Amino acid sequence: MIGKTTSSSTTRSYMDKGVLKRYIVTPDKHAPFHDKKAIKVLKKAIEIIKPDGYIDLGDFGEWGSVSHWQWKKKKKPPLEYIIPRVDKDVEAGIALLDTIDESLDKANVKIKHMIQGNHDEWLDMFVEEHPYLPQYKFDKAMGLKDRGYKYHKAGDYFKIGKLHYYHGHHFGGQYHTANHLRRLGVSIMYGHWHGIQMMGTTSMSGPLEAWSIGCLKDMSKEKNKWLKGRPIDWAHAFAIVDYYPGGDFTVSLVRIIDGKASLWGQELKA
């Protein structure tokens, strides 16, 4: 159910034209490897747009301290060595969420969703291995309940109007948007792949769209040595989703290039 917006923002008044709800949707940040310039642009956009809701598509943190990949070629150390690294990762995640929440609070955003990404799930796997450390579960470590976020576990889908959301890791391939449409048969928005793709198709129930909306991660070679120089199609971006009567929606993708973006005729700079 999509209720009518009650925003009184003069910034929004000429942009609404029948819009019932407006959401900002953001993809993978991988704290502490988030792109600081892109995050500054996002914060400015939130304060200008003053959306009704905010959706984080997951992989909020990198969580390298609990990554299973790091022990493929070397012996796993004792727990007392790992815990300080986990604490450092949690501090970085909290710091990033604090700065995003600061802008959401300024914009008086009350509806907030956090989707758990596959990287975020590594924290839960760590707790499964060490069940006497429940405070490190992703939602607890980030304090999502106290912050007012509705939490969605990795792999879960949720729907607003006619558009579904989840992290994005179920269906891959070069044309993963097409694969999502073919396998799910619904309109879907996701992250995970760090690149931008859009695919549309027709169905008996109406048009369907799949959106992959990039990332907000530092894309430098220094922070992504695991790629070993492999070319990437990653891009910094976030989405504005407007909802209309009957659950119909439009998507506006905002690209961020070198800490700059164009929003509603304004240039935003980090």
Topology:
Blueprint: H1 10-16, E1 21-26, H2 36-49, E2 53-56, H3 79-106, E3 111-115, H4 118-129, H5 138-141, H6 144-147, E4 149-152, E5 158-160, E6 163-165, H7 176-184, E7 187-190, E8 196-201, E9 208-213, E10 236-243, E11 249-256, E12 260-263, E13 266-269
Helix pairs in contact: 2-3
Q: Could you characterize what this model shows?
A:
The protein is of the alpha/beta class and 270 residues long. A hairpin with a 5-residue loop joins β10 (236-243) and β11 (249-256). It contains seven helices and 13 strands. α2 (36-49) packs parallel to α3 (79-106).
Could you give a quick summary of the protein structure above?
The chain has helices at residues 10-16, 36-49, 79-106, 118-129, 138-141, 144-147, 176-184, and strands at residues 21-26, 53-56, 111-115, 149-152, 158-160, 163-165, 187-190, 196-201, 208-213, 236-243, 249-256, 260-263, 266-269. With 270 residues, it is α/β, with parallel strands linked by helices.
> Which ranges are low-confidence, i.e. pLDDT below 50, for 5 or more consecutive residues?
4-12
The strand order across the widest sheet is 4-3-2-1-10-11
- In angstroms, what is the radius of gyration? 19 Å
Helical amount: 25-40%
Report the portion of residues in β strands. Answer: 15-25%
SSE class: alpha/beta
Biggest sheet features: 6 strands, mixed
SSE order, as H and E? Answer: HEHEHEHHHEEEHEEEEEEE
Measured between the Cα atoms of the first and last residue, the distance is: 36 Å
Secondary structure: number of strands: 13
What general outline do the C-alpha atoms trace?
A: globular
Please state the oligomeric state of the protein chains shown.
Answer: single chain
- How many helix segments? 7
What average pLDDT do the residues reach? 93
